[in-house]
Amino acid sequence: MSLDIILKHDNNSKKGAVLLFHGLTGSPFELQKYAKFLYKNGFDVYAQCLPGHGDNFEEIYTISYKDWLNHAYSQFKKLKSEYEDVFVAGLCLGAVLAIAVAIKFPNEVKGIISLSTTLYLDGWRLPWFMFLMPFALSTMIRFYYSYPECEPHGIKNEKTRNAVKKLLEKGDVGMNDFPMTGIYELLKLSKYVRKNLKSVITPILLIHSKDDDLTSVKSSQTVYKKISSRDKEMIILYDSYHMVLYDNEKEFVFNKTLEFIENRLSSRMAHFAVREAAAQC
After folding, report:
1. How many CB atoms lie within 10 A of CB 141?
2. 14 phi and psi, to 5 degrees?
3. What is residue 155's three-state secondary structure?
4. Is the pTM of this model over 0.90?
5. Cβ neighbour number for residue 11 with a 10 Å cutoff
6. 45 has which bridge partners?
């Protein structure tokens, strides 16, 4: 069963495209409502399963963070050949990948929407023995241990949390645990991005929950402080956990995303409208 998302208007959207990346052990399913919202507002939207995710979860034991990078670069280059304006957005691991794309293509990415950026695993629900992780990750232990997904599943809203929990138990929309190898590769990717944040000159919107259970606001604060972008905004949420696209403030996140994107397109779209009007005269 393919979970990839391709929402495309006839002859490509005049507004441009949004490339979405999902989180670690997740799938494009977690981006579905977000993608539909952007599509209804005139954008073409694309989201594919990252390497090591999808139908065969065991593949995550064979991939590296470079596989994720190459996938993200390839997807962006393909869309950039078809659209004048391409925005990149992501959640968790996907947010880190979105920033990585802007590092690789600093003058081509129109804007970044970085949600629950995960540069550090320091959220409040992580167990006390997480300080042993560097040792475990440097040994063969990482191939044999998985950190189980547990309450609150990144969601503060109890009703939504229970619904997502049932879907995870079925195994249709994502993994029900975090393989240590996946965490290892995420941290390597995060290290690469942290080292290269100064290369980011792209407009960026960072949204992070103060009570993120997986990664504290330190991650987004690090990005905000170290990037070279002059056009940057960081928003802190106070009634959500990690999965901001499904929690209590999801509508706010959706609308802020739309506002950010459309503000960066306003001048070009105004020029396009004038040109269209002139052609009809």
Report:
1. 13
2. -70, -20
3. coil
4. no
5. 6
6. 7, 18
Read off the DSSP letter of residue 49: P
Please report, as a single letter, which amino acid is at residue 70: N
**CB burial class (10 A; 0-12, 13-18, 19+) of residue 248?**
middle
By the 8 A CB rule, do 21 and 93 touch?
A: yes
Cα pseudo-dihedral 149, 93, 61, 187, rounded to 10: -100
Each residue of 200-225: pLDDT tens digit? 999 999 999 999 988 999 999 999 99
> How far is 4 from 73, CA to CA, in rounded Å?
17
The string of DSSP codes covering 82-118 is T-S-EEEEEETHHHHHHHHHHHHSTTT--EEEEES--
Asked if the model's pLDDT at residue 131 lies above 60, the reply is no
| Nearest residue to 209 via CA among 199, 201, 219 | 219
pLDDT in tens, 51-88: 887 655 566 677 899 999 999 999 999 999 999 999 99
| Crossing angle for the helix pair 250-280 and 32-40, to the nearest 10 degrees | 30
